Amino acid sequence: MKKITLSAVICTLIFYTSVFAQKANTDSLALVSRISANQLKLGNLQNEVDQKTKNKLDASEQAQKSANENSNAANKLTSEPNNRKLARQANNAASDAKSDSRAARKEERRLNSLNKDIADMKDKIAEDQRKLDKLTTATPPKVN
Q1: Structural domain contains residue 68
Q2: Which residues contact 24 (CB under 8 A, 6 or more apart)?
Q3: Is 142 part of any domain?
Q4: Can you tell me the distance from the alpha carbon of 54 to that of 64, in angstroms, rounded to the nearest whole number?
Q5: What domain range includes position 88?
């Protein structure tokens, strides 16, 4: 009777140990898969940084150029305030400067958002890596 009880206890412990190991193995495979997918997304996001930075710089330069043209048009208009042609040119230059500055701010927000997404993705990868490290270093319960 003691042998049967002892055998049953040992079989139960072996069964639970194998179930624990399979769960840890399944969890670790899922984490490895998620880490790989997130690293791929991170690579894609990092590839976009150069283009977004270039877009931001181009938009900033265009906004500065439009602001300078607006300033020049306004100065010309102050010398001849009754000239309709100069007034129209100044108005158009002001509209261009306004839209170009809006576009520059929009490009800056896009770049900042991309940088935030990259930082978030790095955090996700690091967190999953910590979880994976815990799973791979975890030991099954000891049998007394």
Answers
A1: yes
A2: 135, 138
A3: no
A4: 15
A5: 2-137
| Domain harbouring 37, CATH code | 1.10.287.620
Tell me the pTM.
0.70
Is residue 93 domain-resident?
A: yes
- The answer to whether position 105 is within a domain reads yes
Tens of pLDDT, residue by residue over 58-94, are 999 999 999 999 999 999 999 998 999 999 999 999 9
- Supply 33's token pair: 């898969």
Query: Token match 């520059």: residue?
Result: 104
- Measured CA to CA, the distance from residue 38 to residue 112 in angstroms comes to 20
Q: How far apart are CA 38 and CA 30, in angstroms?
A: 12
Tokens coding 109:
């927000």
Residue 42, classified by CB atoms within 10 Å of its CB into exposed (0-12), middle (13-18) or buried (19+), is: middle
CA distance 69 to 52: 26
Give the burial class of 22: count Cβ atoms within 10 A of its Cβ; 0-12 exposed, 13-18 middle, 19 or more buried: exposed
Rounded to 5, what percent of the chain is helix, strand, coil?
Answer: 90, 0, 10
